[in-house]
Amino acid sequence: MPEPRAERIGLYPGTFDPIHNGHLDIISRGARLVDRLIVGVGINVGKAPLFPVDERVALVTEECAAIAAATGTTIEVRSFDGLLVHFAQKIGAKMIVRGLRAVTDFDYEFQMAGMNSRLARDIETIFLMASEHHQFISSRFVKEVALMGGDIVSFVSPLTFARTMAKVRAGS
Q1: How far apart are the first and last CA of the chain?
Q2: Of 8, 9, 95, 103, which has the fewest CB atoms closer than 10 Å, so is most exposed?
Q3: 153 within domain boundaries
Q4: DSSP letter at 141?
């Protein structure tokens, strides 16, 4: 009798400040590749986040509920600090999921994947190309547009739109 297959755990890391439709697309597609997907919300104060990490974790958790229900995949959201591969090892992930928008992303992601491979040979990095209508979206641009009074409604979900605009109106 064959041994039961080990649970496939994937990790999709990011700062998610704020989470946008491109992130949700990668989460949805990544969830179909694993049994459990951990969305790792990075604590990166160097990026001057609009949302504190606890609010980002809560928002990403709410946004992922429908994806988990639709895919049947368990999706957990956790914050982390430090090296990505150390977090991946801690949670038992054997796959890091990364989204690629453009050639400029590839150069950075290629280097990071190489470093991560040297640090943890048993963890694979897989790249999912951004869907064509999400290729230009980044959290940085969403924040900048919102802070300058522009319309971000087509870049984020209604929930994230409401939370982001409330944060902008409150002056962060």
Answers
A1: 58
A2: 103
A3: no
A4: H
